[in-house]
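Fold this sequence, please.
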Amino acid sequence: MSADFYSMDKLVEFGMSMAIANQMASSMNQSLNQMQVPGAGKAMPTSADNIYFAVIDGKQMGPYSLTELSRLISEKKIVKETYIWKPGMTQWELAENVSEVLRLVAITPPPVPTTNE
């Protein structure tokens, strides 16, 4: 067997190594493409000014846009005692102390009255 780089044995060995590497890369890419990442289907808000996180049921949830916060307020999942944080804030604040959230509360209509017959 020749120690020459261009020998047939070395070329076959190199070709087999490349084939195995391609199979491994293909297998890894397939696994990554099938992986489910929580929240991956949800588009991120476009500006850091519009990203909010909330503590709901004791868990950090988000990111939420102002529209999503408005929906959560109307569903009573965010109340004045809910902790809110957004980029730029040094700590979590109660929703009643975050001006953008307070504005949403002010424009959220009350529940629709029910008629008692």
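Helices lie at 8-34, 66-74, 99-107. Residues 67 and 104 are 9 Å apart (CA to CA).
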